Hints:
The complex is a heterodimer of chains A (about 375) and B (about 575). Chain A has about 375 residues and is of the alpha+beta class.
Amino acid sequence: MKWTLSIALVAATIVLIAAGLFQTRSGGGTVGIAAGRALPGFAMRPDTPEHALTILLGAVQRRDWKQALTVMRTNDAATSEDEQAMAQDWQGSNGSLRTFSSLESFDLWPQHATTDEAQIRARLNWTTPVGPVEDLRDFNLTRSGEIWTVTLPRTEPPNVPAQIVPVTYLRWDLVSGNGQDKWGTHNLDAPRVRIISMNAVNSAQGVVVMGEVENEDTVPAFVNVNATLLNASAAVIDQENSFDKIAHVLLPKAVSPYRIDFPGLDLAKVKNVRMDIKAALVPASADPVIGVMDQKIEQDLQGNPVLHGALLNQSGQTVNIPHVIASFSDSNGRVIWVSDGYVDNALLPQSSAPFAIQIPRNVATNVRSFHVVVNQYSLENS
Amino acid sequence: MIRGEAYSRPIPLMAVVLVALAVHGPLLFMQLPSSSFDANFHIFFASHYVHHWFNPWNEKWFAGFSQTTYPPLTHQWIALLSNVVGLNMGYMLVQLIAVLLLPVGVYRFSRIWVDETASSYAALGSVFLGSLAFLVYQAGQLATVASAALYLNALPYFYEWMNDASFVAMAKGVAISWAAAAAHHVTLIFGIVFFAGPVLWIACQDAVHERIAASLAGAISRAAVFAVVVAAGVGVILLPFWLTLIQHPVHQIPIPHDSRANFLLHSITGINYFVIPYGAMILALPFILLRGAGTPRLRPLLFGFWLAFLFGLGGTTPLPRWLLGRAYDILTFERFTFWATLLALPFVGLLVTNLLRRFTSKAALALSLATVMTIGAALWWLKANPYRPTATVDVDPVVAFLNRDGHDTYRYLTLGFASDLAKVATYTNATSVDGDYNSARLLPEMTHYGSAQLTNAKFYGTAGMSALRSMLAHADRYGLKFVFVHDSYYEPLLTFVGWRKIEVFDHGEVTAWSKEDVPPAHQIPSDAIPPAWQGLMWGTLPLGASLLAIFLEIFLPGTRRAPLQFQMRPPQNEKQYVA
Lengths: 382, 579
């Protein structure tokens, strides 16, 4: 009985552990949870293209660049420079959004494969401070003996030459008689701001209220737009605000798109929309000046319509996280959609970076014009 | 006396308790657990009882929540002691009492299974458990430790009641069980399976084999009476808790916890939840298995241990998920490892006596090294663990800011404060929308996402950041005007959604952010506010149960004897397999 029971308990434990291994491999991890590499003997081997890429992306999730290099194709033994370049490629630099991001999960789609080469498309789901960011990327893999390795194009970091950039931007300071005064609470009249267009539509996620707002004053304004949905009996259904779908600081005469989402609601139940705009006087400057160039609506790798373009930092300071907000109008000049997107890379002085903003398919066909504004976060100014 | 005989004598229980005091007393008086994950949470709960003993509705977290969602005994004792020694030291004292009760409980529980010498070594081993050090100094699970210690003390009375029909034992066992439940509900629920189950089984087995005077029917019927009385008492003592649970069952999205990971695939997690808690006991696992399987009387204990062992492996096996269902995603599993080590201690006591009998001083030296290394590794891990809780936030300026100039008329949020969010809440008058107790959350901005505290939002990835974005979007609704940031990760989000930095504390370590036009906080209507009668029950019955247990132990000392003078011998024809 002693040996029978002992063997039975050990066998049951081993079977359960094996079942646990199978179950875990098919599940996903969570950022910051469940740490460390697999124990020897339990790690995945890069014996297929999918396994090799899974090992690479798993290492990126853990920021384990040494392990990532084990499935990267390198001509010689991996050096510390390779590791550094690899880390910079995946981790970002210059305080960009990527430096704040973590790879949360990924999905793989094999595109084509031969016995020695394969191409896999990966959807990379990044978690960032400004919300989830999705990235589509194609990976080329080659077989070396029994194992597969990933070939990644080496991206060279932008090299900005030393130069003097003249500073000619406008700037508004706020002078108070009392140093204890807080921002925005001075006894001054609020700037004149106005909603110049508003449209409410049903979307896949719920009701969307959008439009554009203008600072009509000669001083900068901090702006927030609120919307309240009312039903037929004038009762409040829900109240939301523009959150990050607006450029909150508007310079004089500047216009910003805004969008307010009401998830899970149906426009048919809404009788009225009450708009409320709040404005406060704030110090502001026109620097950094960011130009928007080469804007055009195209299709991405999956065939979805996107607004592509490039941002050019015309100033002398680094813009760490650019935020692009665009309003799309139909032939009547009515705003029919507002969309936004954050740019992964930092904008170094006098350098440019591409951007892409998704547009719903049903909206894209009706778009006749668009208006793009750029919001930004700079570590220097934070 | 020859040297071998000296090693075969039992260690006096008082000596074991003094060892526990010598080992853990200094560590607790140094307030080592103050940087643990949950210590600030327990102190925060206790601070509420200091000011509102009979009103469990606490406005300081989640825009209002009921403290009837967590059994109050340890918190109320901290609150009582805090009037003399302050909250922090009150916590340490209650923790110390639990730590001192544990070897007593282990000794008495072990006496059901093994002889006096082995039991005394089991009790001594409990002082040096890696899992105990892990729970006390890293996890800060005061209630789990206290409840387990009480429960172990109650079980011998349960066994004695089944055997001897001693009403004194019944009264003491019931009172201590009530106190254990008032300290921690989860321990009681699972303790029935892991601890009480084997005890019931062995009582029945002893009755069948006529090792005790009681008949099988008598033992079972007395067990049923005991269970009914305990259940009825727990039902009444924790009535507000059950009513809250029925009214608001935990329906939130599961929150990830690394104790549910597969330890084989995540090495650091494996070290944290397996190697450190078990320590040198890992070497004893073959002995536990073989001796448990080979000795019929130890088999119930072996099964209890094995089940707790498997549960303690978290997501390494699918068994907990299969057996617990949805509860799997609510529970954390480090406590199961603690229970497994407690259930293993009688075996370890046997192993130690065998080793000492055969190898005397050599064994004593090796065992001493093993025990010291086990607790030493757990204490070393406090600093070596890459995911250890860090207490680097100076919360004083934040508390001072909130308590001046009417800032406490608004709600606030901390970001990057980890467990120090509870420390801010303890000492400020202002209220927060965040909090550190998942089961008490009712705000949809928190329950609709698979993340825990907003202050740790980034560690929960997209779910955490979505919860934070949702809360910031509804800042006006909750009167949320101030955000304190101790992690620059969150600054881009605050900037883009229209918050402005207004003050800098502690040389830039902490920044205060504000939003304009936020109306002052108002009470958020809730159906979870307990009525006054529940507050009265909550303020009297749990503490009353513990006082009753203390009085019965003091004034009814007559049955304080080993529940069964049972001499364990190796099974016949069994070869020595130790060493």
